[in-house]
Structures are given as structure tokens and as C-alpha cells.
Amino acid sequence: MAARAPHSQPESRRKRHEPDWEPPIPGRRRLLKTWDEYMAMAKRVIERFDHQFDLRHFDYVHPVRLQRCAQRFRKPYPVKVAYTEWGDPANPTVVCVGGVANTAMRFNYLASDLESHFRVVCMDWVGRGRSGWMADQRDYSLATYVEQVRQLIDHLGCGPVILLGSSMGGSAAIELAARHPKLVSRLILNDIGPFIPKARRKRRSATLARHYVFREPSDLLRKIGASQKNDGPVSDDIRFNVTFHQTKWSDEEGGRVYRHDVRALQAYREDAQESLDQWLLWKRVRCPVLLIHGLMSDALLAPTIRRMKQNHSVTVMHVPDTGHTPVLSDRNQNWFIHEWLMGRTQSREWTVLHARLRDDPVAKPPVRLVASRRG
Predict the structure, then answer these.
(1) Residue 244: which of 29, 41, 11 has the closest Cα?
(2) What DSSP string describes 243-286?
(3) What is the CATH number of domain 25-351?
(4) Peptide bond before 325: cis, by omega within 30 degrees of 0?
(5) pLDDT tens digits, 125-147
(6) Using one digit for the tens of pLDDT, what is the confidence trace for 16-58?
(7) CA 37 to chain centre
(8) HSE value, Cβ hemisphere, 13 Å, CA-based, for 243
(9) In the chain, where are the structural domains located?
């Protein structure tokens, strides 16, 4: 008897890509052998933002109610927080906060594209970037980050603000908008919603809560490049901007290390053992919302988007070939964000085309932007 032909897996159940899938990196590739070459290239990339922003600080005061140490040791204490400020302070203010391991400089391209009409403030979380560290690992919590954003807005003295949050920053933004509605006029959520599955949180936290030492430029670019399928089709120039500001040189380690307190990421790992459910808070959000969705995201799922749109003013921008989270360095994506903020978008849902690379050496006419109505 002839063997039965193997039953092919239904198309609907096939994975769209293998686990190690990665889109080809567009633009010019940089093959660097020494840290001198890395620094020379990084200098050329980041110089494009010279004199476009001011680096400022304010004192975040950590309240007793958020401390978890022994009662007798609890008292308010200050932590220096860094932020960048772009544009005219007289313009409407956009506050940008990133993910669990991001720095304020990740928003450089977005801020540069928005500063003509907006004052853009991008903040380093405590324990990340150029901000100070908390006294106790247990002081790193979502409640702390919500309070940090609240104190930043109070420090700026310009509320209400437009609040943009990527990943964990979006979770903090949802809670702030729910608990302090007078502080937030509009909300931009970058690939994040009121629900994040436990499996996704655990998987992500397991890769973050480690101490990495990059002793060769290739090691650093390879590690950052592994997230390419999440960030989307960004060029090496974009990755240089991210890697340079996310790391620093360590003489003790003999290489570059992440510019963050590893305890902050270990605290996140402890919290990430369960799903994050903010649906009760979401019901209290009343301001207009722009939801940016990486079409390959495993953090912002289709059922979550559908539920978010029920009885709520939500506009959705889908980003193709991108997971969690879009870097927001693409000119087309940033143009649509600008138009939404200016009240000039008519569609409530669209998919955005990728723009020409910023490091394209050939001067070419601008790409025409196309929005497609979905559903």
C-alpha cells in the first residue's frame, strides 16, 4: 500500500515567519572592527541633532507611599531625572516616554520632525539613560513611573500635555490619563494597549534582566540587530543613534555596557510574571487616542485593538513589517502623527507606507504618502 501523503498544515495555521526571521536591513551596512571606527561613525550620525535640543534635569521626589523598604527607613528622597527639550516652549507640549530599556534619545527623529509646531520633551526613566538610580530595587514599579511623569508635567508647568508612550511608557500613560485626566489632552500609544499577555511579558523580561558587556562593535550591533524584526525596517544610521545613547563605555569592563540600572530590569522581570490588565483604567480615559500598531506585534493583539475601539475615540495607524515597537524614525509615520496632532486626518484607521531611508545619499523627490481606510 502506498504511503499516505503527509497532510499539509492549513494555511491559516501556518506561522507567518520563522522564530529567527529578520527582514533585510535597508541602507548602507557598516562593518566596524574597532571602537575608534564605531565612535567616528556614531559621531557622524548623531551630529545631525547638534544644537536642536537642550538636555535638562529636574528632581523627581520619590514619595513614601511608593516605597517598600522597612517603615523606619522610609522618607521622601530626590532622584535626578534627565530629559531633552525641543522646539518653542510657547507651542503645545508633547511628552514622550519610552519602554522599559529605552532612553530619551530614541525619540530624536520624532522630536526633530515635530518641533516646528510643538515643544517636545523626551524623558529618561529613573534608572535609565542619564537619569539617577533609585535607592531600592523595589522602588522601580509602574506606579513610580506614573508618578515620575506626573511630576515632570508639574515641573514643566504647561499642562495639559499630549502624552506619547511606547511599550511600558504607554502603560504608564494610560494610568496617568485615567487618574489625572486634566493633565493629558491627547494620548499616543505606541504599540501598547490595556492588556499585555503574560507569556509575552515573561519572554521579554527574561532577555532584559541581564548585565551585558560588548567588547567589540560587532557584538553590540549584532545584539541590537536581533531586535530588527521588532523595530521594523530601519537603517544602520537609526541603529547607531539607538546603540550610542543606550550604552556607555566602561573601563572596568573593557567594553560598552547598557546605560541603565540592571535592578530596574530585574524589578520588571518580577512584575512580568502575570498579564498586565488595565481595562478598568482604560474605561476612565476620555481624551482622543492615536494607537500605533506594529502589524507583527506580539504585545498589541487584534482582540485588544477591537476592544479598545468600543465606545472610545481611537484612531489606529498600522505599521507593516514591524513588531513591538516602531522606532518612530520613519518620515511617513511621523508625518501622520503630526497631521493627527494638527487635527488634519480624516480617516480613523490606515496603514502607512515606509518612507525613503533618511541616510539615502541621493537627493530624490519626497515619497507621496498614502492612507488606506480599513474595515
Answers:
(1) 41
(2) HHHHEEEETTTTEEEESB-HHHHHHHHHHTTS-EE-HHHHTT--
(3) 3.40.50.1820
(4) yes
(5) 999 999 999 999 999 999 999 99
(6) 334 343 445 454 556 788 999 989 988 888 888 989 999 999 9
(7) 28
(8) 30
(9) 25-351
